[in-house]
């Protein structure tokens, strides 16, 4: 039997499960269009007052904001939240005895949800184009964006995994998730381009793992990173992905031992 088959089935079931909530499509698209309109209005007003990021024209800023919102439709999916739920319910011990990799199961379930949410991009984009004009990058930039987005997706998965794995020790993860999400939203480039951070602070923020999630793909998309400058940025993403994967593996090993000790 193909080792990947169970996880593909988990992803398929997650996709089917999410597809049953079709009313949420309209609310999600409506919320997206409203946010695009509000952010376009805010940035237009800021540019009119000469309070804008250096080197980014208004049309590029609106493109940046809109693409960031489209990315959030995928990146806000968190399949690892089941860790917290299963630990609190006490069912995690039974799951650990199953002949599957639980981390891969969480990834597969989240990926299935992601595929459904990715379908929302098409109607959301169609509605957004009524309000704004989105610049299209060159083919090399689009390829670089896709690669950076995939790496950012991986970093985001492991960040969520680590936050939810804290439940093995605390049972409740709301506080730490709130703090990390607030920091991530601010320092990932999702809300504000990291070029707004001055001097040395901007370099420090750009080197943090949060920048790998949104900022790097978005900078490639709008052309702030181009040519050979793309490769160091991608390597930074790869480095954070490997580091987070290693930390997650170590935390998961300790978490399993904790469950075994508690269960006798």
Describe this entry's structure for a reader.
It is a single chain. By secondary structure, this protein is mostly helical. The protein has one domain (5-263). Helix content is 75%, strand content 0%. The chain has helices at 5-19, 23-48, 58-75, 81-89, 92-96, 102-119, 121-131, 139-165, 167-170, 174-187, 199-207, 215-222, 230-263. Helix 1 (5-19) crosses helix 6 (102-119), helix 2 (23-48) runs parallel beside helix 7 and helix 8 (139-165) packs antiparallel against helix 12. The longest helix is centred in the C-terminal third of the chain and has 34 residues, at 230-263. The protein is globular and about 60 Å long. It starts with a helix and ends with a helix. The model is unreliable at 260-264 (pLDDT under 50).
């Amino acid at each position: 039997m193909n080792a990947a088959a169970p996880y593909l089935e988990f992803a398929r079931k997650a996709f089917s499960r999410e597809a049953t909530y079709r009313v949420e499509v309209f609310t999600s698209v409506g919320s997206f269009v409203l946010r695009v309109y509000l952010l376009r209005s805010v940035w237009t007003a800021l540019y009119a007052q000469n309070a804008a990021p250096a080197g980014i024209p208004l049309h590029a800023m609106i493109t940046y904001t809109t693409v960031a919102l489209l990315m959030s439709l995928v990146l806000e999916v968190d399949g690892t939240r089941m860790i917290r739920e299963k630990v609190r319910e006490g069912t995690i011990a039974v799951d650990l005895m199953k002949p599957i990799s639980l981390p891969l199961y969480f990834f597969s379930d989240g990926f299935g949800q992601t595929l459904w949410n990715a379908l929302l991009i098409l109607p959301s984009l169609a509605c957004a184009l009524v309000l704004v004009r989105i610049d299209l990058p060159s083919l090399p930039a689009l390829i670089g964006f896709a690669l950076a987005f995939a790496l950012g997706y991986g970093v985001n998965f492991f960040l969520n995994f680590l936050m939810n794995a804290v439940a093995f020790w605390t049972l409740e993860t709301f506080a730490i998730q709130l703090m990390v999400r607030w920091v991530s939203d601010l320092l990932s480039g999702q809300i504000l381009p990291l070029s707004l951070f001055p001097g040395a602070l901007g370099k420090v923020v750009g080197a943090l793992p949060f920048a790998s999630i949104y900022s790097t793909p978005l900078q490639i998309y709008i052309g702030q990173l181009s040519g050979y400058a793309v490769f160091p940025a991608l390597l930074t993403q790869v480095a954070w992905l490997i580091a987070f994967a290693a930390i997650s593996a170590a935390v998961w090993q300790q978490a399993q031992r904790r469950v075994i000790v508690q269960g006798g």
